[in-house]
């Protein structure tokens, strides 16, 4: 049960006027865009990760970060990093809420209030919507497809394995959203969600719904901690336990100190 | 109509024993994994892009490249690049076929024949399944959600916009697969497919099916050329035409020379 | 005049067992080593720069950072970044002193106390030698060759321009060391020193000695601030003033707030 | 003895209008510039290295590459890579000659003919000065300070070790230039030169002169091959032999095939 005092902070990092930039003066080669997008995301991962947060790629021109330990002002440092290294700039919305969905929603609205993503006159804006300071523990759920290597990676056409896993995580994202969680595929056969404090039965229901919808078996490890980092490490350890015991839902004991 | 002599080459780049590496000796912090995966993918994009190919991230531990202009032996150079810069190594399968699905399927089987993705004794394998040398033009289709900025990015919760667009492209990937195409979300509101030479009516059917399934309107630009690069640039220009004219399917005149 | 309470902190980041790694099992290709070294240095620059410090490449397997705002414990985050992204690891010595030379000397001794740079059993050590906490303002001097573009870059053989400028900065480094400063070439025709609080006459003498020794005219801008970042920005602005006025030594007014 | 038919190709990669860019609209933070410079250099190392060439950082806004296997037209791909990923662009001069110094001199003049490094109107120029196609083997000499770890890295103040080694390689560069070679410090205690085909006695003289001038003992391994890569690998192996035998000059047998 979520303590209503617990407040999580999400940041939405949006590249300014990116769509138009990709075709001006002429369409830019796709591998160049792929490399650019991936490296900006990697830099965000380093910036946020070294401050105990978590990152998801989003749509690459819109990236998502869990930023409880990062003040809005400090986000300017990431904007500065982008400005001096890349041919694009970034605007950021920072929002808090009692659930991840509420926090990311606040961040989204804050960012949208600064202007359109494709407004050429809008650049490097930083907007916040924080009703409260980030406070209290976070919960991270780490999902893993059961025996993906044996069933899919080593056995199927690579594209079919990818479609299957991505569809499973699209279903998963929709179910978890109903519970206030923000979920992302993170590569391989894994997805990670930042969630409210949900009970195991909720995860059972979600996993069963995904299994019924797409025929993919998923297990989950859940961790809770003061930072996304510690909660996430707890989730990873719980997942390892589940891999060994065969349990599909394993919730770690609360982390006493950061990993 | 596809000239049955046309042969496309796909490469499947798989990180060796990656799942186990991410949790040995202890689970590694997720932002570190995100950064690592993104940077290896960016390096692949540079390697392949500078040789006129195209790349898709796949599942990051399994990346996809269109490699008509890159000999199997030259793929070793990318394996070498990974070996000396990263804490992981990569095995690669290279395959050809008359359709992208067939080519990627051949690449998958070639790679699978070298051993499991999680076989600790299998590393840096390079396997090929080439019935014929790559030959003849490629077709690239570049898909774009109609007015994504106005309808979704500037208007919706960022996570809902992402879920909507990703679900649309999962549907698109399934439909296009039926026609022998390999499709990938490439960021923003865009997806790219490498396809056989399909007629406009096929694209009309696919786009209608996606619209009916998920309520998202997509347009497409199609290009054809001797390399993924030139075909892709043709597709991007065709898409720009479509953005201006309002047409949902625009096929570019064949490229006479590489962009 | 240096306030003897002012304490600066330097960190020496040393790649563990790097020499042997570069030739095991066989010598690794030089461009791979160049890329690896440059990217680790770039990551250090991002890590330290986003925490208001400064970095110098040193010898790449031994990198130098000015780290007043970074606790010894926080340095572990950089070690973790290296561990999960690269095929090498890093040990770090952190030291303080009333002059940059003393601080870097303390950092060196702390690191050396953990074992040899080529001791295969020594990895990821973190050692500190801090007699006092970092405190008080820093001074940064930014050196620039007068009219390098006109005299050298646009006029001479590129290798001769490079030799000339590097020799000038080797001489500069020796002279500035006599005054307790740590100096590094930073690219182009620029060098940066972290120095005690020296008077303008000292800079005049140093520049004259370099001019006499190698025939290269250098100007300098000097800044002072609570962080390497603010001191360095002050130095850059002072240098711009000197470029406009023709003065060879310009000391900025003390920075009141960080840039 | 150099076969006067042997022709080597060098490329000079110069960032356009870089000095002014670093201070416009305001001076950019130094760690940002360090990261940018290092990553562009790393990308050049990957681009050239995967095409069997060698790279040296030069002054970072002027980088040097040995490019026998890379046509002038192909250099445009690197310019394109920079254009789409970075906030700066690059102009390139490509030159050939019978000695490295002549080749780099030709490249320099070709580049200078396109305009000043700080001409805001000059961007992304590509100029060549090729009297002959690159042809015939290259020679690479790999220099290594004897027992640097024991004498300097583990024993001295890090800044003093760095000054000593950099001064030694400044002296080495000057001596080797007299013989037509282009030399660069490459990190650690190593320098690499691309040279004409010199006899062992010449290396003996050069090493003795450096020893007399700066008191640093250096050994060298020399390799010869069809590409900078194979010549360089030969040099590295020769150096390993020298480390084991105690010889200060070891010339490898000619490479029969590329490494």
UniProtKB/TrEMBL annotation, chains A, B, C, D:
GTP-binding recorded as keyword: yes
The gene coding this protein: gch3
InterPro entries: GTP_CycHdrlase_3, Nucleotide_cyclase, Rev_trsase/Diguanyl_cyclase
EC number of the protein: 3.5.4.29
Keyword field: GTP-binding, Hydrolase, Nucleotide-binding
Family: Belongs to the archaeal-type GTP cyclohydrolase family.
Function in brief: Catalyzes the formation of 2-amino-5-formylamino-6-ribofuranosylamino-4(3H)-pyrimidinone ribonucleotide monophosphate and inorganic phosphate from GTP. Also has an independent pyrophosphate phosphohydrolase activity.
Enzyme's top EC category: hydrolase
Region feature (Disordered): 227-259
Any one GO molecular function term: GTP binding
Name listed for the protein in its UniProt record: GTP cyclohydrolase III
Reaction(s) catalysed (UniProt annotation): GTP + 3 H2O = 2-amino-5-formylamino-6-(5-phospho-D-ribosylamino)pyrimidin-4(3H)-one + 2 phosphate + 2 H(+)
